[in-house]
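Standup notes, protein team

Yesterday: finished cleaning the Bugula neritina set.
Today: Autophagy-related protein 16 domain-containing protein structure.
Blockers: none.

Input for Autophagy-related protein 16 domain-containing protein:
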Amino acid sequence: MDFGKVIYGLLKERNRVEKESLFKIVNSNSKLLTEVLTLKTKCKELERNEGDLRLENVSLRQKKTTSVASEEQLQQHIKIQEELTGLLRERGEKNQEIIDLKNKLQECEKQLGEKDSV
């Protein structure tokens, strides 16, 4: 038996076994690194989305505040319009009273003119 060949065969077998286990470790490490990079990318994207959502939230809150203020302004505008309508109606009634009184005055003046001429 040649000890050199036996040792060489044992070393070859050991290298094959270790190579397989190291290959599995390197392969797993490569897959894990790929996953880490993917997760980091997703994390950055989520952080950007979070920032966008925060800005949108602030914008929506401002719009809501503006909307509430607009609603109050609308209610105030409606109230003022109703008040104006009432005042215009009252003015129309007063104008009609003036016309009626002018007609009555003309009638009275006419009657006075007829009495004076008699």
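Follow-up from PR in the comments: The mean pLDDT is 87.
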